[in-house]
Amino acid sequence: MDRDIAAQSLRGVAVARAKVRSDLSGLWFPLILFGAITLGSVPAVLLAPGEIIGAYWTVLGIVGGVATGVFYQRRERSLGVSAVGWPYIATALAIMCGALLTGWYGGLMVLPALSFFGPVVVVALGYLVFAWLERAVPLAAMALGLLGATAAVWLSGIDPRSAGLVLAVLYGATFVVTGVLYALARKDA
Q1: What integer pLDDT is reported at residue 5 of this predicted model?
Q2: Which position has the higher pLDDT, 14 or 127?
Q3: For the chain, which residues make up each domain, given as ranges?
Q4: What are the CA-CA distances from residue 156 to residues 127, 166, 188 (Å)?
Q5: What is the DSSP code string of the chain?
Q6: Backbone dihedral region of 15: left (phi > 0), alpha (psi from -120 to 50 degrees) or beta?
Q7: What is the pLDDT of residue 52?
Q8: CA proximity to 100, closest of 167, 30, 53
Q9: What is the pLDDT of residues 54-98, one digit of tens each?
């Protein structure tokens, strides 16, 4: 009888842990936010030199990161539970720094392919890390799909600026749609 009670207790703890993880997850928010920021970058990709795109992402990347941090902090307070945040913060910083550095270095070295493909590859790889942290298979599938699409655009041989435009629209729209699907899957979103 004691084994049955212990097994039932362990199942109850596993269910409670899954519920808390689900309640803390707000994947929809940063996906929609950064999807909108990415779509907002399309005019810069079309019209502006690389420095403007870098400035756009430096400013809005920080604003988006702060807004996401505030969102998660408020969510944790309203739930009365918190998650270990440093892996998420480290991943977000790695994405931002990696994307900015590959874009900047590609521009500095006059390697347009690196300028346009490097940042999106860094972003997709970062979202694979987020998927692992969240144990979110759909998010991993999204990131892998974006990596595949990036490779297809690169292999198509179109000029890097056009590729940057295609990828900005693709990544932005994919983030927004994925975020909306995550939001719809949640009652409290």
Answers
A1: 72
A2: 127
A3: 25-185
A4: 24, 12, 42
A5: -HHHHHHHHHHHHHHHHHHHHHHH--THHHHHHHHHHHHHTHHHHHHS-HHHHHHHHHHHHHHHHHHHHHHHHHHHHHHT-----HHHHHHHHHHHHHHHHHHHHHHHTT-HHHHHHHHHHHHHHHHHHHHHHHT-HHHHHHHHHHHHHHHHHHHHT--HHHHHHHHHHHHHHHHHHHHHHHHHH-S--
A6: alpha
A7: 85
A8: 53
A9: 889 999 999 999 999 999 888 888 877 667 789 999 999 999 999
In this structure, what token pair is assigned to residue 46?
């079309």
Model pTM score = 0.82
Q: DSSP letters of 63-93? A: HHHHHHHHHHHHHHHHHT-----HHHHHHHH
